[in-house]
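Cross-posting from the modeling subforum.

Setting up a comparison between two proteins and wanted a second pair of eyes on the formatting. Protein 1 (sequence, then structure tokens):
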Amino acid sequence: MVEGVGRYAREAVAGMGSAGRMVFGAVRASRDVRTWGPHATEQMMKLGVGSLPIGILIACFTGIVLALLASYAFTNAVPRYLVGTLVQKTVMMELAPVLTGLALAGRVGANIAAEIGTMRVTEQVDALETLAYDPIAYLVTPRILAGLVMFPVVVGVAMMVGLGAGWLASMGLLDLSSEQFLKGARFFFSEFDVRYGLVKAASFGVAVTAVGCAAGLETRGGAEGVGAAATRAVVTSAVLILVLDAFWAVVWLLGRSV
């Protein structure tokens, strides 16, 4: 068991290092706009627009469950309009970015790793180099850019859907009036809540796409290697999302509370 935990930890740390190198490589390759520019919009559609349904579904049920949990926790203890406060704060600052990021780590990270991994084992990446294309600029830069831009879009939609679902659940299941819920949602609202959630989402997008690209480019061993790369990308992305979530909380929230 200890050996297995150590192996997974070592693989996760190695994956984070590969992702860091991939991000720096993508930044250097960003000057080659003619190579990555034509593919950026396609990747944004695939990674962002294609991920909206799962983001909306997760946010919808998250908002409903949060409203019910808040009502249960606040029974006869605090004013019921604070249900709106809890739903607003937790959806926008934590659950919408993190849950959506974890779901997209499975969808986007595995897809990128499998796609680039297949190109690696079928020697398509080598063919790009033969044709004088930079594989980083051609494959990695448009995907990381798409993650940076589109993850906040998906999370922003999830924030609105989650808050709306909590609102409807409060009125339909908790006999809480619309005025009471909105009073609680506005009571402690700050534009920082939205900014914090979207910045976290952008960092998650870079992490997921970079890990997927790194796992794909390091694929070896045919079909089995492609499957292992996809699994490694999902696991490492999930761990990195949790690490980044803690990082932003310590760096940003702790500084505001002191």
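Protein 2 (same layout):
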Amino acid sequence: MALSFNREHVDFAQYKPRHFRWAITGKVATVTLDRPERKNPLTFESYAELRELFRALVHADAIKAVVITGAGDNFCSGGDVHDIIGPLVRMQEAQDMQGLLDFTRMTGDVVKAMRACPQPIIAAIDGVCAGAGAILAMASDLRIGTARSRTAFLFTRVGLAGADMGACNILPRIIGAGRAAELLYTGRAMAGEEAERWGFFNRLAEPEAVLAAAEALAAELAAGPSFGHAMTKRCLHQEWSMGIDEAVEAEAQAQAICMQTRDFARAYHAFTARAKPVFEGN
């Protein structure tokens, strides 16, 4: 079943992607990159399908959080050398600048769709997390890794700029400008413990537990005030380009909107009754 993000109501329970696995448990959806024999690389088709999925999630009222992970012992090795890099070199040899630009814009659209979808995205990262795989991790809202994971923004290793899919904008905001510059210039791998120390990973888990830890965190967020979470995500994204006065005003407006939700009243009434609030996302 193909997704049409022009529809306001998509039956995600019946969605059957062609280029990754998709599962829904309660209010949490899990995307699994599923080519473990090649460390889960991306292709032209999987890029496009991920873009359409994250665009469509804007309309997924029943899905409150998303986990993205890789099958086997690795997260994602980046763009497939044979299915992507080879064709791009042929475009270069043919001086097909428009084709190259169409590709780079399409990959960037994946990041824009991930940042625009209202659900928090949690990446569960083990093993290789390289190139575009590192970008998928970076574009997620939260990241749980393993000590044995290796995250590398490899673009300079293949003669390209470290500026890819928003890396020069987003990565410095996660780990700081100096550290981001080191990774983007050198293309070296960042070990799991270093990634946690630098703030790229929110926490570490054992390899056999990393997916469960990400799904547990997603379930915790999904049980919370999802309208408020969506507003938090929007503010985190929009306020990057604001001054402090604009940001304070934007958050005043955002909070006033959230105060009109029933979840806000539910939390108050639960507090007065000494009970735990049950949020419904409205």
